[in-house]
Amino acid sequence: MSRVIRKFTTRVPQWRPHLTPVDLDNATPAQREALKETPSNTKVSDYVLVLAHDPESLRIRTALFNGIMYDPDGLSRAERELGAVAASFVNRCIYCAAVHAQRYNQLTGDDAVMQEIFFHGEKARLDPRQQAILRFAVGLSECPPKVGADDIASLREAGLDELEILDLTLATTLFGWANRLMHTLGEPVAAR
Amino acid sequence: MTSSFNAADSTPQHVLEQAAGVATAQGPLGDALARRQALMSRTQASYEAALLPEDPGGLSHAERAVLACRMARVCQQAGLTEHYAALLAEKDAADELAALATPGAQPPAEDARLTAIVAYVDLVTESPRDASPEDIQRLQQAGIAESDIVRLAGLVAFVNYQLRVAAVLAVMGEPT
Fold it and tell me: Which member of B76, B133, B174 has the closest CB to residue A144?
């Protein structure tokens, strides 16, 4: 058995499921249909094959996830990744945090921000706009979520408009969703 | 820029915007929701898949509504608590099941299946960071099929997403 990864890292681990992934050869028509929505140029991951046990949800999920992370305008790609990492940090989803910290680094060419967040969490010292985004996303990811008029006001003060606040909310909460699947239905192990 | 778009024209059916009180939002928030209308529609479709699936497998619509109502109360989201309480009322759930819509309420100890389900819902709503492989094993030992574990996990994950989006929209929609 490969070693389970328990510390935040930007090196993307493998994901080992606790449940049996759907066997493509024996998939039902509904499962095949849902799996069509996933990118055809890559091998279907074990994660997606586990989710294929519930094809009705999986079918919509890919389009929603891609839209929230990639639709044009509004919040920048990198800042959406920042929201995703903040949620993954709170929920301690090592796998999601690694994937999205790595994407953030690729988009910005700046490793310092993610390093700072992995070490200091919500208290990370970042520029004012990044700090406002991080604080908001961390509070929103807690249970019960911490969001009040002053939290929204802080984002506005940091220069975010309504569309950017909505985009940040969607990216952060989407990862609350993904973390709850990834971090419970399997675990990150050292990549071979 | 004047906002000409009324979100109510396109989102009369969306549970989330209704519950957050922003289904008729105008101005910058109405414009932002209109710009992300495709995402809000996919969110609604995800709601239907999680709460009202055509094939509910081993997790009935009534059980889904009960658990969603419990999560909405744990997350203190008034609009969705009201929505899920109303959805539950439509489902004609047995009293023992309906009681679980209140956080802290526990199933009868002899009901291993519901006990395991409620424990998973509470843990993954309140403190997903503490989830471990044993939590999935407990569901399996209670006789819950793998496909139903995935359905349950999907329900909990979706509702937690929905509750947080609603929490933000409710605040953004407040008159300033």
Answer: B76
Residue B1 lies in a domain: no
User: Does the domain made of A1-192 have the CATH classification 3.90.1300.10?
Assistant: no
Average pLDDT, chain B: 93
> Which residues does chain B have within 8 Å of residue A149's beta carbon, measured at their own beta carbons?
171, 174, 176
pLDDT of amino acid A42? 66
The DSSP annotation for chain B comes to: ------GGGT-TT-HHHHHHT-TT--HHHHHHHHHTHHHHHHHHHHHHHHHS-SS-TTS-HHHHHHHHHHHHHHTT-HHHHHHHHHHHHHHT--HHHHGGGSTT----TT-HHHHHHHHHHHHHHH-GGG--HHHHHHHHHTT--HHHHHHHHHHHHHHHHHHHHHHHHHHHTS--
Nearest CB among B38, B77, B171 relative to A67 is that of B38
pLDDT surpasses 60 at A19: yes
> What is the rounded CA–CA span in Å between residue B124 and residue B149?
13
Q: Write the CATH number for B73.
A: 1.20.1290.10
Within an 8 Å CB–CB cutoff, is residue B64 touching chain A? Answer: no
Q: For residue B150, which residues of chain A lie inside 8 Å, CB to CB?
A: 19, 50-51, 53-54, 185
Q: How many domains does chain B have?
A: 1
Say if the Cβ atoms of B146 and A57 lie within 8 Å. no
Segment A82-97, tens digit of pLDDT: 999 999 999 999 999 9
Within an 8 Å CB–CB cutoff, is residue B76 touching chain A?
yes
Q: Which of B35, B50, B176 shows the shortest C-beta gap to A163?
A: B35
First-to-last alpha carbon distance for chain B, in angstroms, is 19
Q: Is B7 a domain residue?
A: no
Q: Please state at what angle helix A112-120 crosses helix A77-90, rounded to 10 degrees.
A: 20
Tens digit of each residue's pLDDT (9 = 90 or more) over B10-62: 545 899 999 999 999 999 999 999 999 999 999 999 999 999 999 999 999 99
Locate the domains of chain A by residue range: 1-192
